Amino acid sequence: MRKWMLTLNLQNVFSGLYLHAMFLFGSMCVVYSDCTPQQLAAFMNCSRHERHTRNYDYMEGGDVRIRQLFSNTLWFLTIDDQGSIGGTQDPADCNSILEIRTVSEGGILAIKGVKSQRYISMTKAGVLQGKENYSENCNFKEVFLENYFNAYSSAKWTKNGKEMFIALSPKGKPIRGKKTRREQKSSHFIPMKCQEDDKRVD
Ligand SMILES: *[C@@H]1O[C@H](CO)[C@@H](O)[C@H](O)[C@H]1NC(C)=O
Ligand SMILES: *[C@@H]1O[C@H](CO)[C@@H](O)[C@H](O)[C@H]1NC(C)=O
């Protein structure tokens, strides 16, 4: 039963990935119309970037990678210019392009919106916000789950000793940290790089 569920989840994800690729290929002009040249450059550059940071994990000096975080509830995590955290199903939404930077060893990282230049932060009460200025509230611990997804828990705050995760509901809304659990689908994300760009560049 469990195995079946897992297969089902992965199928969802891969059809999501496939759609993502098709969308980017099919409509480049529409796709980037809202991006400034810098955002576009960042997005286009990310496949090249990836080659430099093949050693993905915890390189010295703060390894940076450009990613989209695609949730197991089928949303791309977004940070908008007002600092709201949410989800989009438009894979070309600039607010979904994130800069993920390693802050310290043990998988502590900070996640910043490329467009908004705001960091995802979690308050003590478990509320997600996009902050202009980096602080310890913006540190998250990346956990690799057995189902190929990652989870991101606040590195600063816990609720009664329990981790609080970045999570998007099935409707693409952020979930308050104290209601989140490691095993919930809403806390599971796949970091996606721009493989479409790889193809275009090569
Ligand atoms: C492109 O990637 C290179 C190498 O990783 C990096 O030094 C440069 O800052 C990137 N440019 C943009 C616009 O992201
Ligand atoms: C962020 O930091 C800058 C520079 O220190 C400061 O001017 C600004 O007021 C800060 N913004 C917020 C929202 O705290």
UniProtKB/TrEMBL annotation:
InterPro entries: Fibroblast_GF_fam, IL1/FGF. One of its GO terms (molecular function) is growth factor activity. Residues 173-202 are annotated as: Disordered. Residues 173-182 have a biased composition (Basic residues). Pfam families: FGF (PF00167). It comes from the Eukaryota. Transmembrane segments: none annotated. Belongs to the heparin-binding growth factors family. PANTHER family: FIBROBLAST GROWTH FACTOR (PTHR11486). This is Fibroblast growth factor. It comes from Cynoglossus semilaevis.
